[in-house]
Amino acid sequence: MGPMEGERGYTTLSIFDSPAVPVGDDALQWVPIRRRLDIGAFGVNAYRAAREGEPVIEDHAESPGQEELYIVLSGRARFTIGDEAIDVAHGTCVLVADPDLRRRAVALEDGTAVVAVGGWRGRAYGSLPWEPIYLAQPAMREGDWAGAAEILERESGEHRETAIVNYRLAYCHARLGETARALEELRRAIEINPGMRERAHEEEAFEVLRDHEAWPR
């Protein structure tokens, strides 16, 4: 069920029925609440696990520096935060205020759902480029490189000129055999973030590009 807009300036969305975007290869389901409701004041997303043992929060640290609040809506989840594991029942909140703490969660029951809310203290919220990258992942997993590139172009918006978006576009165009476009996107990625140079040297998809005169040196 998609968003339903009311006549009085409000919108509803069912976290349990709204179509999810599969993330990675481990059955994690992402419901992009912020994007679907066009929220600009804070970050909010939901994650679902159909079965016990499946991930419901991916393993990550908050490199952008956000505080994150997790709310278990249904089922139960085992959170691992740093070196500590805690079992959390529905109706429970977990605040991870330290962005450097690694965190993840797996479902302890079928149909577990978790909402994540994030933001920065003393700073206006701004969306992050991981969202268009997640949206393109299903197409990339299927080898639909043209479809993935189209999603990245369409959904990246203000993040179009960020290193990771340029890099993912370079990857897609390299897979498509579009050498000039791949090299241009890769050049932009490295200009924005020189750390991408080392990553590119290890990327299998770029192997055929490395002897090209336009390869970023």
Features of the shown structure:
single chain; Serine Threonine Protein Phosphatase 5, Tetratricopeptide repeat; alpha+beta; 28% strand; Jelly Rolls; 6 helices; 217 residues; 6-stranded antiparallel beta sheet; 4-stranded antiparallel beta sheet; globular
Tell me what you see in this structure.
The chain is α+β, with helices and mostly antiparallel strands and 217 residues long. The protein folds into two domains: 4-119, Sandwich (Jelly Rolls), CATH 2.60.120.10; 130-209, Serine Threonine Protein Phosphatase 5, Tetratricopeptide repeat. It is 28% helix and 28% strand. The protein is built from six helices and twelve strands. The chain has a six-stranded antiparallel beta sheet with strand order 3-4-5-12-7-10. A four-stranded antiparallel beta sheet has the order 6-11-8-9, with no helix packed on it. A two-stranded antiparallel sheet has the order 1-2. α2 runs parallel beside α4. The relative contact order is 0.12. The mean pLDDT is 93.
